Structures are given as structure tokens and as C-alpha cells.
Amino acid sequence: MDVAFWVGVLACTAVAANLLSLVIATFRIKGRRAAVPVPAGAPAVSIVRPVCGIEQFSEETLRAAYRIDYPAYEIVYCVDRASDPVIPLVERAIAENPQVPSRIVIGDEPVSDNPKLNNCVRGWDAAIHDWIILADSNVLMPVDYVQRLLASFRADTGLVCSTPVGSRPENVWAELECAFLNTLQARWQYAGEALGFGFAQGKSMLWRREVLDSRGGIRALAAEIAEDAASTKLVRRAGLHVHLVDSPFEQPLGRRTAAEVWSRQLRWARLRRVTFPLFFAPELFTGATLPMAGAAYAASSYGWSAALAVGAVALLWYGPEVVLARSKGWQLSPRLVAGFVVRDILLVPMWLYAWVAEDIVWRGNAMSVRTKGAAQVSADGAAV
Length: 384
Hints:
The protein is built from 13 helices and twelve strands. By secondary structure, the protein is of the alpha/beta class. The chain starts with a helix and ends in an 8-residue tail after the last strand.
């Protein structure tokens, strides 16, 4: 058995693992369906929502929070600066919806190098209910948003989350972001949870207050540069599990630039590398580029057609991705399928660069990640 044999085995293993993850995600994730009814004895909920600046869909995502069909909830908006241009938009939404108790908390608390976490601390302290949702401003909340999160809370649950599903892309780069978010990242997150490796995702996180407060409170999430990584580790140390909603929530994308997609994906890759290096290491094989190259090499070494080998891998790799997207009602177009290929090509340099890159940009803050769970950022946002 020579090198070509083992290269072929590695390629086949990657294809099999990819297929397994797609099958698990297809069964684990529910597609579009009727709204989940409010459960009997539904607890009151606080939604703590950090907001910063105005994005393309800010008004729509803000207003969606007031269409939630849930009997008792409040919204606490967290804004780090009184001069933020989003404040008038938030104030208008509050004024138009007096039926939902809402307020704005201004000013961050610098407990970490994570600006989002700093922005949420005072909002968490101000929340009045025992069930608290930390929700990003760009999540488009469905009418059954709260009950879908609560439905995934079980006896062994420490935290319920939702990955974002990209929708409404308006150009090719936004389609590429859908290729990353939906049938790759969301799919692997659901497959991991089904296999007992649930990871938190910061877009929507439902906490029972006592789970977090009994272990240092929201300030304990400063233990890692990413609050979702810190949440995952805190929940696991408590002997509990991170669970996901049965169908992820939408994030409308609009227009994206190539630089925005690259920098965002590289930032997330770097954060995964720093916080969970053993899980990040095999990510190199979550794209089809290396398995295709390996299949071509093995096939040509044995006198077979390299082109046919590459075609077989492509069919087994991307065909089920298309089926997953179609079955769940996610974004699907010829441009998206081309985005699968571009995404997988980009995964290789992204993975390599994530091992050595120190600088990331997060909401305009230039940060340097140098050691596990640590970052440095100056007061004016410049890396130090």
C-alpha cells in the first residue's frame, strides 16, 4: 500500500464524513412550518439586544421583535455610546410599540476585550426576568422566536442557541456568505450537537439566569475573547449541554463585498482556532478542495481518470448540499452552487492564515489575538 492508496483513503474518509454531517443535519433541522404555539405556563422573558450603528435591515429587524407572539417579554437595548446613530431608530420602535416594555441602557462596562460582551453587561444587569435571551441586532426574529428557543430547553440544558441562516443576498458576495453560513457552518454545528458536541453561537442565546449567575454571571464570559466560546466552556464545566433550536433563525444579508466576507470568515476562523484548536484542526477537510485533489492524485496513480474522480467527489459533496438547502427552504440558486466551490477554495488559505494571524477587526475595533482566550485592544480601537 503506497502513498496514493492512503491519499485515496483520506479523500474517501473526508467524503464520508461530509455525507454523514449532511444526513444528520437534514434530519435534525426542521424546514418551514406553522408557528410553534405558546406553551402553558410560559415564563416571562427578557431580550437583551446589543445594537451598534445602522445596517441595511436594522429597521426591519428591530420591528420584528415587536411582532413576537409571546405573552410576557421585555426588550433591553444596549448601546455603548449616547451618540450612536441607531438610538433614534430604537426610540421610534419603542414609541410605536408601547405594549412591549422596552428601554435603552447606554454605556458599556469594560470587563473584557470583547466589545459586544462589554456592551451587554449593563443590559444583563438591568433585565428583570429569570429567562434571558442575548440576541444580536441583525437577527430577524420570527413570531414564534421565544417559544422555539424554550422548546429546546431540556433537563440537561445549560444554554439554547441558534446559528444564523443567511437570506436575501443581493449580490454574488452575499451569496458566498450564504454558502459559508448555511450548508457549511450551520450544518456542521447541528451535526456536532447531534453527536454530543454542542457549541454556543452568539447570534441568539437563551439563558436561565441562575445557570450563568451562579458561575460568575455575564462577566464570567470574559474568560474567552468570544462570548460564545466562553459560554460553551462554562456550560460544559457545569455538566450541562448546549442545545440548538430545531430550525435556525434568519439573518438577511443584502449586499456584501468580497473584503467583508473574507475578513468576517477569517475572524471567526481565528477565534475558533484560539478557543477550540483541536476542533479547528480538521476544518481543513470540511471543504472539497483537498478531497478532490487527493482523489485526482490517487486515481491517476492507479491509471484511472482523474477527471472522473474529481467529478465523483464534486457530485457526492455538493449534490447533498443542494438537497439540504432546498429541503429547508434556504437560499438556493446557481450562483450559490458556484459559491460552494469558491468557498471551499478559500477555506484552504483561510485555515492556514488562521494559525498565524494575530490581528482581527471586530465592529471597527482592531484587536490582536495572541494567546488562547486573550486579546489586546487599545482604548481608541488600535491594536497594541
